[in-house]
Amino acid sequence: MHHMWKNIIGHTAQVDQLRGYSVSEKLPHAFLFAGMLGVGKSLVAREFFKALNCLNSRGDPCDACRCCVKVNAKTHPDLVEIIPSAAWIKVESIRDTLAEIGLKPFEARMKCIVIEPAEQMNKASANALLKSLEEPPHHTIFILVSHKPHLLLPTIISRCQVLRFTPVKASIDEDASGDAALTRITSGIPGGIAGVDRESFLAVRTEVLAIFSGIDAADLSGRYFPKDTADPKGMAPVLLTVVEAILRDILVIGHGGNTLLNEELKDISLKPLSYPDVEETARCIRELRRGAMENINLRVAFTELFILLSQFSAR
Amino acid sequence: MKYTIPKDTLQGMLAKVQGFTERKSTLPILSHVLMETSDDKLRLKATDLHTSIQVISSCEIKEQGACAISAKSLYDVVRELPDGKIDIWVEDHTRAHIHTENNYIKMNVMDPEEYPVIDFSLAQEGFHVPVHIMKPMVERTMFSVPSQAEGETKYTLNGALLTATQEKKGSYLEMVTTDSRRLSVARYEIDQPVEMGEGIIIPRKGLQEIRRLMDNREENASILLTRESIFFVSEDTRATVRLIEGKFPDYRSVVNLETYPTCTRVNAHELLSVLKVCVAMVSDISNCVRFSFKKDRTLIFANNPDQGEVDTEIAADHNGEDIDINFNPRYVMECLVYIDGEAHIYLKGPQGPCMITDGEKTDCKWVIMPMRV
User: Fold this and answer.
1) Which of A99, A103, A106 sits opposite B148 (nearest CB)?
2) Which residues 28-57 of B are in CB contact (within 8 Å) with A?
3) CB-based burial of residue B201 (10 Å sphere; 0-12 exposed, 13-18 middle, 19+ buried)?
């Protein structure tokens, strides 16, 4: 089940495929890495670049040679990244990069242009890219990274070799990384708690679990969203991940299973499983995920979610 | 790394590489120079990822090593130091110490491993082209490389093709540029054959840098060509530009003299000054001048409803049928500048391109597409 790219958790099939490309001479000129935010797409893109250009062992980045070191330090001149300047990837950034696309790689074998997230290209940017995407120069490949590939123009997608990334299976990383529990709790999306360090993530989890020992749902919500709508620390996605993991465990316990993500739940007495309640909570999480970026009253919304969660407790 | 160097030498070296650092880039290390020692030489390298330069000087080396150090800060510091010797050493890749009699300066440095790799080891089969051949070749073709604003989507056109050809009469170097509305070819004889395969494509920016370097009139300067790169070489300096990869379109059929049945001979200076008048009149939008090539004269007519019109006639020697045709006057002017005496204007017809040469000489050929009104 394991592959040679030690920085990547899971994604065995995708890594094997890319590894194959990196040692063969036949290479698609454009890739689309599609999958949920946080599963590791851009990390894979970076490892792929290393695999193509590693000076010690092509195919399996050594992380020690000049090339790998530069990629890790984000100073490699041939790994070009295009990112949104505000809400969009503007046509100027695409044009500036394309103006130099004909130049030979500076020191690498292959030059790589990573566009992330590709769905944030506006129509003008996407159209400016089309011609080069179809026929880049010999030593250049494109990697489009997209969290929401359905928003891309069909003309973009049809020019790319699509690689889909799914959440990582928790069992995979049991011995690959010490943070196995963390990966499990994030439902196989290691980057899902991006922006929050491990300790504060675990603290959030403890706080949310306290809902079963009777703490007030409105108080808990108010602690994270004192100003109703604002979410300056980006806590909403973290909370949702935590609640989702707890809900999953409640279902598992309800069916008599014992492979829990949150071991603490074993000590809590729960009501007999009620499917309508589970469905109601899941719906709430779904709607919050969709609405979290919009201008909703987060304090009220999360209070509702915590109340729903507390109802599973037998207290 | 540890060495001692006279202030003037170091300042001179730093001044030379300043222009090749890049401060706006997303890669912070590009604002640094790479300082390396090897044997008894100190090497400074700088690059903006388009043009790379290396300056060498011998000095007293006590310990070999390398570091990357901010180009501007170091230059500003060294410039203000008193004349005399400077001691420089670097400890643990973290700090550079710059020491004179009364000054003690410490500067942060970056890991030399992170610096882009620039290869200056010149290939053995390289061929030296004197500046007096390279310079006119660049000047006579550079203006028809499309500017970045024009957004040429065919990326191989964004540079000048440099190729070598062998013919019975001798060996030639040829430089070609085109923005798909006009094409310039300059060709110069060289004294020995050189193998360049399909040639190299030098991007616009690199061409400008090479031209600037040639303008500095350094002693013993020359251009070194290899199959895959171009270097500017002088006593202590080597510079190279990053090339465009790809295939330049086939241009030879366009510049074949035999496909142009009609020819007008006209005084280049006279035509140039008439066109200057026209340019003053026509606007940027309807940028076009009508040429009527007739038996013994050429009529030039420019009209701009907002400004006025120009109607001029100059003497010319024309063979073939009369032709009325419109051209962008700026395109014609840009090549007339390089012609002394008589310009030959070859034509295909009222819809076809024209080709301009310097009299009978066919070293330089400029092809211009007509405008349709």
Assistant:
1) A99
2) 28-29, 49-50
3) buried
C-alpha A177: how far from chain center: 17
Distance of alpha carbon B18 from the chain centroid: 19
**Tens-digit pLDDT profile for residues A175-233:** 444 455 566 666 666 665 555 666 777 788 888 888 888 888 888 888 888 887 777 77
Co-location of A276 and A208 in the same domain: yes
**A35 backbone φψ class: left, alpha, beta (φ>0; ψ -120 to 50):** left
Contact A75 B117 (CB under 8 A): no
**Nearest CB to B29: which of A75, A95, A104?**
A75
In this structure, CATH architecture of domain B256-368: Roll (3.10)
Are the Cβ atoms of B201 and A102 closer than 8 angstroms?
A: yes
CB pairs under 8 A between A and B: 54
With 0-12 CB in 10 A as exposed, 13-18 as middle and 19+ as buried, what is B102?
Answer: exposed
Same domain flag for A299 and A269: yes
| Closest residue to A106, CB basis, from B114, B155, B242 | B242
- pTM for the whole thing? 0.79
Provide the pLDDT for residue A1. Answer: 43
Residues of chain A neighbouring B246 (CB-CB closer than 8 A): 102, 137-138
Check whether residue A247 and residue A160 sit in a common domain: no
User: Using a CB-CB distance cutoff of 8 angstroms, which residues of chain A are in contact with residue B49?
Assistant: 77, 106
Q: Is B274 exposed, middle or buried (0-12, 13-18, 19+ CB in 10 A)?
A: buried
Whether residue A247 contacts residue A285, with contact meaning beta carbons closer than 8 Å, is answered with yes
Residues A18 and A157 in one domain: yes
What is d(CA B246, CA B186) in angstroms, rounded to the nearest whole number? Answer: 21
pLDDT tens-place string over residues B301-357: 998 888 888 999 999 999 889 999 999 999 999 999 999 989 999 999 889 999 999
Q: What is the mean pLDDT of chain A?
A: 84
Report ipTM (2 d.p.): 0.80
Considering only alpha carbons, which residue of chain A is nearest residue B27? A75
* Owning domain of residue A35: 12-165
Residue B209 neighbours by CB distance under 10 Å = 23
The tokens for A104 are 């030979």
Mutate to test the interface with B, among A103, A110, A113, A133 (most CBs of B within 10 A): A103
* Residue whose entry in the numeric block shows the structure tokens 């251009």: B223
Q: Which two tokens stand for residue B258?
A: 């035999």
* Best residue of A71, A104, A114 to probe chain B, by most B CBs closer than 10 Å: A104
